[in-house]
Amino acid sequence: MRIVIEQPTNSDLDVIHSVLTETYWSPGIPRDTVARACANSFCAIARDDRGALIGFARLVTDRATFAWLCDVIVLPAHQGQGLARSLVRTLREEPELTHLRRWLLGTKDAHGVYAPLGFAPLAAPERMMEIRNPTPYGRAVS
Questions:
Q1: What is the pLDDT at residue 107?
Q2: Torsion-angle region of residue 71: left (phi > 0), alpha (psi -120 to 50) or beta?
């Protein structure tokens, strides 16, 4: 297994899209939206020994002060092996990103994955605000 920071190929996008469309955070997301999101993000890709995609993480960043970690996925056959943490660690250790002031993420059920990497609840959640569209792709997100 190897993890690289690179843009996904078309066949990678097929895999990423098929997984994301079934997640709680992006049900029904169109493939072209996934492709556009990846093109405008830092992407970490885990590949098996044959070069096939087995995990993925995306980072939205200005590369100067801020990063939003999102779309961390590991294919079912490879879950439970620390791959999600390795993907995130690869992004955190990328020299171009080590100086960022703030990293954020949202998760419904994977706090235990991210806490060992330094992620914690917001220190001042009252300072954060959001605008939510509950059905961006036609199905409700949670």
A1: 95
A2: left
